[in-house]
Design brief:
heterodimer, A: mainly alpha, about 75% helix, B: mainly alpha, disordered N terminus, disordered C terminus
Chain lengths: ~325, ~300
Amino acid sequence: MKTLRPLLRAMLNSLGLLVAVVVLNFVLIHAAPGDPAQVIAGEMGGASPRIMAQIRAEYGLDRSEGAQLIDYLDKVAHGNLGFSFYFNEPVLRLVFSRLPATMLLILTALVLAVLIGAGLGIVSARRPHGLLNQIVSVISIAGYAAPVFWTGLMLLVLFASIWPVLPVAGMDDPAYPSTGLAHIADVAKHLVLPATTLAIVYVAQYSRFMRASMIEALQADYVRTARAKGLPERRVVLKHALRNALIPLVTIVGLQFGQIFAGAVLVETVFAWPGLGRLAFDSILRRDYPTLLGILLFSAILVIVANLITDVVYRVIDPRIRTGRA
Amino acid sequence: MSATTASATPPRPAVLADEPQAARPGHAPVVEAVRLYIRNPAGMFGLVIFFCLVAATLIGPYLYPVDPFDIVGAPFTLPGGDPILGTDYLGRDVLAGLLHGGRASMTVGVVAAGITIFIGVTIGAFAGYFGDRTDALLMKVTEFFQVLPTLLFAMVLVTLFGQHLSITTIAIGIVSWPPAARLTRAEFLRIRGLDYVKAARAGGAGPLYLMGRVILPNAAPPIIVAATLAIGTAILFEGGLSFLGLGDPNVMSWGLMLGQNREYALDAWWTVLLPGGAIFLAVLAISLIGDAINDALNPRFRERH
């Protein structure tokens, strides 16, 4: 029970944040210049008077704004995120159909970034003044400064016209539809460039971050103790220091989920990856506000869930937090 | 790091080492920081690139007075001929775009970073100074803004309120301030309990005076670093928004060049390589400067590594 209470509080907090995001969505629709009905229908293509009248009736736009807000909250609570007149589909269904592609891209990039980034960080922390450390420094600063959409575009140009060994667009090959294992291989091939592009930014950040926390961990008393009692250096680094140095990394990975999602929007746009980011791009082009706002809301939910998971993982790897003896 | 730090005297107690720099009289810390900065090759390298970029975008348009929106030749003219850096898909001069576009990108970067730091420092200062309920409330607001993926939120703001450079700038500021607020809050929480703040309060100083004139100068080093890095982030942001087609179509910027030429990247690689490279160089320079300032302002941190 004692361990559950903070978790319960975190979940309540998340619920509050969620309601706030829904309210923000509502405020944005109404604060935007022009008629809210126009916003909901999407300007592009000039909604017909019939659709406009239908929207006015459905959203009760002639009522007071308080009543509309309560109505809107109720709609969202029942999973109704509005209707995309451009895609001619409910927004929620649209979002769910694109979610798997985005999650595949984000999680692959994250695993790559954590493994490579943490690895580089650990190795360079061993010799803070060595050559490798300098190289990691350069990689991390360059990786941060290179705009992710630019890295992507350059890889696209490279692999499309100069060295065509990897597909540069889409998630599978529509010309050769495949099933089963062949399809998995096809998707994996299409995943290489987008995932690498997205991972580069975070390899840069994580290696730098990991190096700093590893250097700190290696100077701690318990590491000196472990060395003093004659443990092999490998075991000292990987077992004693790493476990403690990983804690801050877990936190930033979790807290940066929103940023990674934003990076995915750009990467998906470059490589025509059929996920939520590409959907966001398409809905900007069409001024499809319900879809865009639905994605904003949905991404906020993803971030909130990621934060909750971080909180739990954090408690698991650091017993000091679990018992409140921090 | 031997002669420069103030450790010529025998080792001092650790507590003294934690005293903020401005507690010592005079301008010595600033001079010391500048000296440390100058001796940092990466930082000087960043500064040189940055000055070159600023000079190019300030003076360049006068030395090379071609309108970046004018069609000067056939589309997709290769670099190396006339014009020197080639033309884009409409036949517009790429070099003119880079020089004029830099002005907009840099301006957005600096102004948006200013907005970011202003909002962040104000909220962080109030939260950290007053604590308790003010802190709880302001941190809830901050947490709320952190739940929204920044780029997506900025995309929504620009889509709803119009594609205008000023709206882009404000949107970037609105979505980016939470980390600055957290940083400032942490510094204010730490400093508000120190003796010299208590002394100033006992001397009759009001909250605004204490926040602005007593605590803020001592909280400045990390905020200065954050402000520097925020310029780079804002330039990246402007690039990303423009890349997605949300740039101001009437103002040339590096991001706009990338966004408009994106579809033709395979036919005209130079029209995306160059503006993206310009963004890369600018952000790289700013990061190097930010890191060097950080090292110069926190010599103790540097010594540990």
